[in-house]
Protein: Acetyl esterase/lipase
Amino acid sequence: MPITGTLADAVRVRAPLRSLGELPRYDEVTVTERTAPGPPGAPDVRVRVYRPRVLPSPAPAALLLHGGAFVLGNLDAVHDAAARSAAHASAVIVAVGYRLAPEHPYPAGLEDTYAALTWLAANAAGLGVDPSRIGVSGASSGAALATGVTMLSRDRGGPAVCFQHLTTPALDDRLGTASMLEYTGTPIWSRPLAEESWRMYLGPGLSDVSHYAAPARARLEHLTGLPAAYISTAGLDPVRDEGILYALRLTEAGVPVELHNYPGLYHAFGAPHRPEDQRRIAAEHLESLRRGLHGS
Structure:
């Protein structure tokens, strides 16, 4: 989502969450709102479940984590994407309303995501989901949560994730890559916004940043054994190299990776006067999610 001004300004005017009745309906998909038990001592996590009306059970599923620099966005922001993903991928899509920084810094959003993942796995039978085919999908900061929860769940002995679908991922709080140093004033996303985002997400006084928070910090042993990944980056995006370097490190760790870099586009694949490219990329993203969840 384009940001004008600072993230702090945008946080003060966040859009409220709408009810399902206020949102578009889709002929091919049913949408229900549920709550997953939250982390210990925290509120329950609101989720929206998108299910194709014609879907054999058990079906694959994916958590969908919205972007928004860890501080913006909500379930409404991915309503259309979740419905389209469910229909095209022939899968159950569960969008997660995780808590946002700066009011709830790390690890609140990640713990909410893990709570939603464990809820999905525990309720797989009732949702018509195959618990062995649960993936994660996220864009930008949502991709950081997707990668973080994949490692966290593995290390806690939680539900196994079968596939990671990551678009323009923001993964590195150190902000030292070549693309981050070059694209300091690009549209949609820039280095100053990235600095503000990570500062708000990590909160004050956090000196030892975990790889669960910033997955680019993961050592090779943290990456070994992770599920296959699809990663897409934009050529004029400050976080471009974070996604590319993460893909290379996953490959080094023996993880199957499909990497696409789309030149000439900004963060989240924004670009003026290029709707054909944007439609093509959206179609490729949907198809890669379908392939990943169905094991093809």
